[in-house]
Amino acid sequence: MKSLRILAATAAVIGVAACNSGPKTPPPSGSGKSASLRAMEQVAIAAHKCWFASKDQAFRKYQMANELNNFGGTPRFLLVPAKQYGAKPLLVVQASGASSQVEVFGPLMNEALGARIGSDVARWRSGDTSCGGTA
């Protein structure tokens, strides 16, 4: 009787292992993220890498405030003065709703750095996440 239980338990373990060892099916193509969130994740990651993690001197006076998971359906990130996280944003980069179009606006766009910001964001939005810009 004891050996029968051991045999049954072993068969159950082998059966479960066989079910779990098959090829994994890929997740559905839809990640559940909106087009605007996917677009902004791509741009925000590149912006962080190229402007801040690389210690780019042109962006030394600013810090990034990430708001990709806000409840308004408008994923965005802001640039605010360094050490003033709650200050009025100097740059807003956002997308909204089902759109993958990225908007860029704020006082920094009227300064010399604005042309670089615009070209960087356009490049990143197109899928090229290189850090090609200079101030």
In words, what does this structure look like?
This protein is an alpha+beta fold and 135 residues long. The protein is 38% helix and 14% strand. It has helices at 2-20, 35-53, 113-125, and strands at 62-67, 76-81, 91-94, 103-105. Strand 3 and strand 4 (103-105) form a beta hairpin. Helix 2 (35-53) crosses helix 3 (113-125). The longest helix has 19 residues, at 2-20.
Summarize the helix and strand pattern as letters. Answer: HHEEEEH
Q: What is the arithmetic mean of pLDDT?
A: 79
Q: Please state roughly what percent of the residues sit in beta strands, choosing from under 5%, 5-15%, 15-25%, 25-35%, 35-45% or over 45%.
A: 5-15%
From the alpha carbons, calculate the radius of gyration and give it in angstroms.
24 Å
End-to-end CA span:
80 Å
Residue share in helix: 25-40%
Please give the count of helices. Answer: 3
Shape: globular
The count of DSSP E runs of length 2 or more, i.e. the number of strands, is: 4
